[in-house]
Amino acid sequence: MKLAQFAGSKPTTKFIWVVDKLFDICNSSSYIAKSFKAPLDNHNLSFRLTDLHNIANYLSQLTEDYPVRTPLTQGWRKTAVIEFVITIKSICGLTQRLLKRHNHPFMYLLTYKLSQDHLETLFSRIRRRGGRNNNPNTLQFKYALRSCLLKNGIRASKKANCQEPSDVLLSVEPPELTIINQEDHNTFITDNEEVIQFVKLIQQPSLFHDSVLFYM
After folding, report:
1. Sequence-distant (≥ 6) Cβ neighbours of residue 47 within 8 angstroms
2. Which of 121, 88, 117, 108 has the alpha carbon at shortest distance from 162?
3. What percent of the chain clears pLDDT 90, i.e. is strictly above it?
4. How far is CA 83 from the centre of its chain?
5. Which of 94, 95, 119, 214 has the smallest count of CB within 10 Å of its CB?
6. What is the DSSP string of 20-77?
7. Which of 118, 117, 145 lies closest to 129, judged by CA?
8. Cβ contact 148:129 at 8 Å
């Protein structure tokens, strides 16, 4: 359009386009999506890896001119750029490992599943159990987490984006618990071995137990 107000804005336009493209690739959430929001699979893997490497190189070469010309990766505002580059390298390595492995390779990878939104949702549910208290102590966290565990199940996806490993605690169906002593809520009966192991984990003194508030 040749508008005078946008003279010299080409570098800014390129930056916006590159970052928008990166966000699309890092937020693929549907296996039927198209363009840059499509899942990473063996059909587009080489193209996407090339795109991601080019974006990482572009971000690494950005500079700031005040007070002196300095690469962003070495300046005061380096955190965002460095974390973007780390995310890109992590996605590239993880995608190649999951799509190219010999035993049960993934059909595709949805990068949105790697975001911290799911962790924030879990923390939100735990905080909600405490009402107005958003800073639970260890005992409050234990009961809130146990309540969430009993009311929610985890199932492996039938579309091959998620597989059920044997060495993690997965509850396929919400277990039924029978309280033996109403005054002692630490004593209960359940046939679900995963829940028994998990409750032992949060009851027994351990690094996990001692660091609950730190992680929250």
Report:
1. none
2. 108
3. 19
4. 14
5. 214
6. HHHHHHHT---TT--GGGSPEETTTHHHHHHHHHHHHHHHHT-EE-SSS-EEGGGSTT
7. 145
8. yes
Q: How many CA atoms lie within 13 A of 21 on its CB side?
A: 18
How many angstroms separate the CA atoms of 67 and 76, rounded?
A: 11
Tell me what pLDDT residue 151 has: 66
Residue 164: both structure tokens together: 């059920």
Contact by Cβ (8 Å): 111, 40: yes
How far apart are the C-alpha atoms of 23 and 42, rounded to whole Å?
20
| 175 prior amide bond cis, ω within 30 | no
- Helix (H), strand (E) at residue 94: helix 78-100
* pLDDT at res. 212: 63
Tokens, residue 57: 């190189």
pLDDT per position as a tens digit, 153-202: 555 556 555 555 444 444 434 444 444 444 444 444 555 676 667 666 66
